[in-house]
Q: What sequence folds into this?
């Protein structure tokens, strides 16, 4: 197997490939994306193991079995693929290329920028339609400030679980680590909701996702605080907001990058939100900050994102250099 020190340059290459090429549409039109394949497995299990005739206890047990099977299956598949690829010429480059498909730097930037562009160039209705693609809340309940805040919050949270966390698990465990992480993270996004259908079946996936995102969420928050420099803000102010308000978020992880972004931009994030079927009455992060966010604030968040991605890449390069 790949040793930790040897893995890091592969992770660096994966981060570089993702930054340059992102999600190539021409490729995914011809073959299924790994996350799409994982999603099909989860959807099939949801339809067969989460039926209304089953008791709450059985649905919770089935959900726990699914979460365990996803982790075990992804680890085994990852180890097999990694062993096979290491035995062929340029196999480690292929490992990096596969890992790059599970990191979301460029696609995250493009999706958030699309909300900014739609809101700025076409108006509120276009902004609502576009933000629907990256957040789960009810877009029809959002005004311009709400659309802007939703995009910025998605930028911060997905930097943590779509960029930093995959990189962390790739660096620690190689291909098995990043595949297992994406399996659970995908399950959380599909069934880890507090709706009547998924409250019990998705409980195990949601709790496991919280656990495996703990280290990355704190790192992501620190990277975003450093990124405050990109918008002429003080990183120490962002750190203070993050330390003070991260725990006010209902998620044990999302509060860290979101509070850091709120502090870096000087705006209030989170707060009351409406989702299909339910609403939340959360406290604002950085409640003293400016609440009417705009498309210009999305641009500023994207600058912070780029800086934070650069910080992560520099740290990986530094760690990969032999002493």
A:
């Amino acid at each position: 197997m790949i040793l930790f020190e040897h893995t890091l340059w592969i992770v660096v290459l994966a981060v570089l490939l993702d930054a340059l090429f992102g999600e190539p549409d021409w490729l995914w039109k011809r073959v299924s994306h790994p996350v799409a394949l994982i999603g099909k497995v989860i959807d099939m299990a949801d339809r067969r193991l989460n039926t209304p005739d089953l008791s709450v206890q059985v649905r919770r047990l089935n959900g726990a079995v699914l979460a365990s099977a996803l982790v075990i299956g992804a680890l085994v598949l990852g180890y097999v693929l990694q062993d096979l690829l290491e035995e062929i010429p340029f196999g480690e480059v292929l490992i990096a290329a596969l890992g790059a498909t599970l990191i979301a730097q460029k696609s995250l930037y493009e999706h958030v920028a699309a909300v900014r562009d739609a809101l700025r160039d076409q108006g509120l209705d276009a902004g609502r339609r576009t933000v629907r693609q990256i957040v789960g809340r009810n877009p029809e309940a959002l005004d311009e400030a709400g659309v802007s805040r939703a995009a910025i919050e998605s930028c911060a949270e997905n930097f943590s679980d779509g960029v930093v966390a995959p990189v962390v698990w790739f660096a620690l465990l190689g291909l098995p680590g990043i595949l297992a992480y994406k399996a659970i993270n995908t399950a959380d996004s599909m069934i880890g909701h507090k709706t009547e259908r998924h409250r019990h079946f998705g409980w195990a996936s949601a709790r496991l996702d919280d656990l495996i995102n703990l280290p990355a969420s704190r790192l992501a928050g620190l990277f975003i605080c450093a990124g405050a420099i990109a918008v002429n803000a003080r990183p120490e102010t962002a750190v203070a907001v993050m330390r003070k308000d991260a725990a006010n978020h209902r998620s044990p992880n999302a509060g860290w990058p979101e509070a850091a972004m709120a502090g870096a931009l000087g705006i209030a994030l989170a707060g009351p939100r409406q989702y299909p079927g339910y609403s939340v009455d959360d406290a604002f992060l950085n409640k003293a900050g400016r609440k009417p966010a705009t498309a210009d604030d999305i641009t500023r968040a994207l600058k912070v994102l780029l800086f934070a991605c650069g910080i992560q890449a520099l740290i990986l390069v530094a760690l990969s250099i032999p002493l």
Summary: Strands lie at 269-275, 278-285.
